[in-house]
Design brief:
With 71 residues, this protein is an alpha+beta fold. Helices cover 17% and strands 54% of the residues.
């Protein structure tokens, strides 16, 4: 097996139900267009608040995937 390089991107997933669901949404949507996903790290959790009520859970996710060049 040769050496590999991985790229890391940061995404924000949202959910009206939970932080877990927000993180899952970010990773699963990214997985539709990115190949070789490796690690997802939740780096921040927050909530959207409107009129004193939580309306959304947000998870900031750092996602790594194998970087492949065209050559």
């Amino acid at each position: 097996m040769g050496d590999s390089v991985y790229k890391i991107i940061e995404l924000v997933g949202t959910s009206s139900a939970s932080w877990d669901e927000a993180a899952k949404n970010a990773v699963e949507l990214a997985g539709k267009s990115l190949r070789d996903l490796r690690v997802a790290e939740v780096s921040k959790l927050d909530m959207k608040v409107e009129d004193g009520k939580v309306t959304a859970f947000r998870a900031r996710v750092k996602l790594s995937f194998k970087y492949v060049t065209g050559s």
